[in-house]
Design a protein that fits this description.
Elements: E1 3-8, E2 16-25, E3 30-35, E4 42-47, E5 55-58, E6 63-68, H1 83-91, H2 96-104, E7 113-118, E8 123-127, E9 134-135, E10 139-143, H3 153-166, H4 173-181, H5 199-204, E11 215-225, E12 230-238, E13 241-248
Antiparallel strand pairs: 1-2, 1-10, 2-11, 3-4, 4-5, 5-6, 6-7, 7-8, 8-9, 11-12, 12-13
Helix pairs in contact: 3-4
Length: about 250
């Protein structure tokens, strides 16, 4: 994922509400969200190149999601796939802190990442660029390709959009959130972060919804979780068309 906005412990109906966009090169082979044949309790998309995932849930209510930490100067050759960090938590039965502690002990084996894990009891965050396990309190959070709540324009807009939808915008909640995730207007140059990539790419990557000839937002996903049930809704974009699938957990 390249943008994950989420509300934890503040909604009357759901303990966790997630609104996320996955940005990736169009040519990278990907399977849409499904229950995995080799792990039928896991619902997630799948990167068919490395066989991991960027976000998923289980029938037991575990959730994990990942973004890359943008560092164009980082040497990634020989490092492990970040996608296994999400699938590893979904396949495990460790509590979030124990799982992240194990990841912390081998964090240098992976390129820069941000990882969110949730087991229905607690929500934690860890980045190997910060080296600190954080237990998250109730609130609204945003995560892109820097540390949690770094105020990039897309993060700030995404958080505000999620808050407005949860507070009641007069629209269906699902449609309101999807609409907020499709904002494609780039940020003004004075508001752009400086992450070491060319200015043109800073502009291209600044909207919530990214569209370039070779790279862009390939899917938007909304997850609603509480102790009794969960809903996972994914919209996949291919050219000018989109497909939507909704799963009940």
């Amino acid at each position: 994922m390249c943008l994950i906005n989420f509300a934890y412990g503040i909604d009357d109906t759901y303990d966790l509400v997630v609104a996320a966009n996955r940005d990736e090169f169009y040519e990278r082979p990907t399977a849409q969200a499904h229950f995995w044949e080799d792990a039928p309790h896991i619902l997630a998309g799948r990167d068919l190149e490395k066989m991991g995932t960027w976000m998923g849930v289980t029938k037991e209510g575990r959730f994990a999601a990942l973004t890359n930490y943008r560092d164009p100067g980082e040497e990634t050759k020989g490092k492990r796939s970040r996608g296994e960090l999400v699938s590893g938590f979904l396949m495990d039965d460790k509590d979030p802190h124990s799982y992240l502690k194990a990841i912390q002990n081998k964090q240098d084996q992976y390129p820069g990442f941000n990882l969110i894990v949730y087991d229905g009891q607690s929500l934690l965050y860890f980045s190997n660029r910060e080296d600190k396990i954080r237990v998250l309190e109730p609130g609204v959070y945003g995560l892109s390709n820097h540390l949690l709540d770094t105020p990039w324009p897309k993060v700030t807009k995404g958080k505000e959009g999620l808050k407005q939808c949860l507070n009641g915008s007069g629209e269906n909640l699902k449609e309101c959130i999807f609409s907020s995730l499709q904002l494609a207007e780039p940020a003004s140059d004075e508001d752009l972060p400086d992450t070491g990539i060319p200015l043109e790419w800073e502009r291209n990557l600044s909207p919530l919804f990214i569209q370039t000839p070779q790279y862009g937002t390939r899917a938007s996903t909304i997850v609603f979780l509480n102790r009794e049930e969960g809903h996972f809704v994914e919209r996949v974009y291919e050219g000018n068309s989109q497909q939507e699938k909704e799963f009940t957990i």
